[in-house]
Write a structure and sequence with these properties.
The protein has 263 residues and is mainly α. The chain has two domains: 155 residues, no CATH class; 92 residues, no CATH class. The chain contains eleven helices and two strands. The chain has a two-stranded antiparallel sheet. A hairpin with a 2-residue loop joins β1 and β2. α2 runs antiparallel to α6 and α7 runs antiparallel to α8.
């Protein structure tokens, strides 16, 4: 089943917070992920986000991991590149021909893996707890032109849509006897052609349907009005204050040199 949005309806603290506060929080978390390159710190941040979604968003850990699953091949590829082509420093653990696997590169591989996953989760936190219409309205309230806000919302919405569609196509091709796991790298690349072609065709169809839907709703007409309005409440101020304090603490740790590997 293809989901056209990542939003999960729950009665939770994160769902009740103003979308503008969650946008700022996501930006803070995304930036904090860049601060550290130590696997202990990035791993802690990753698990902190998963637990926070469970406690404050009432989103099951299994559901969160299901959204991350399509991103795992990309994360694994980044980790392998760091292990094989990372820093020249460190002690050699194992050598394959001219490729040297070093302890520092393994640490960096896990650090980068957790960093990418945490960066993805910092965005998913916003998407899983905010409806698309509220996200667009929040961006407009933050003085972003409506056209740009809608473009960002559509882009974020169709990331999980295309990922889910790709999984569906892969399952359908596997049911027809396509073995994606077997063969060398070149053979595997060729086997992904039957997946990419229908994915591209379906993406074009979705784009055409979206264009028709936008035109039927008089997109681009002046003096746009909104059915709903956003109001900043006291709990949003408390939420933002906690986010700022968390960001300042992480920035202080980074300035003091904590959570940084010498590569």
């Amino acid at each position: 089943m293809i989901r056209y949005t990542m939003f999960l309806r729950r009665k939770s603290i994160l769902h009740s917070i103003d979308p503008r506060s969650k946008i700022i929080l996501s930006l803070f978390l995304f930036t904090v992920c860049i601060f550290f390159n130590n696997p202990i710190y990035t791993g802690t941040l990753f698990f902190f986000l998963i637990i926070s979604l469970k406690i404050f968003g009432k989103i099951e850990i299994k559901k969160t991991l299901s959204f991350l699953k399509p991103m795992l091949p990309f994360v694994v590829m980044i980790m392998l590149l760091w292990i094989l082509l990372g820093s020249e420093k460190g002690n050699v653990i194992y050598q394959i021909w001219k490729l040297k696997i070093k302890d520092v590169n393994i640490e960096m591989a896990f650090a980068m893996g957790f960093r990418v996953l945490a960066m993805i989760l910092s965005t998913f936190l916003l998407l899983m707890t905010t409806e698309q219409r509220d996200l667009v309205l929040a961006l407009v309230k933050m003085k972003l032109p409506y056209e740009y806000g809608l473009t960002i919302a559509i882009a974020l919405r169709y990331v999980p849509t295309l990922a889910s569609l790709a999984v569906s196509i892969m399952d359908a091709q596997k049911a027809r006897g396509l073995e994606l796991e077997k063969g060398n790298i070149l053979e595997k690349i060729k086997k992904y052609i039957p997946i990419l072609v229908p994915l591209i065709v379906k993406s074009i169809q979705l784009a055409q349907e979206l264009a028709i839907a936008i035109e039927t709703r008089a997109f681009g007409k002046p003096n746009r009005t909104f059915y709903r309005d956003l109001k900043f409440k006291f709990k949003d101020l408390v939420f933002l204050s906690a986010a700022v304090i968390f960001f300042v603490i992480c920035l202080y740790l980074r300035i003091k040199g904590y959570g940084v590997l010498d590569i």
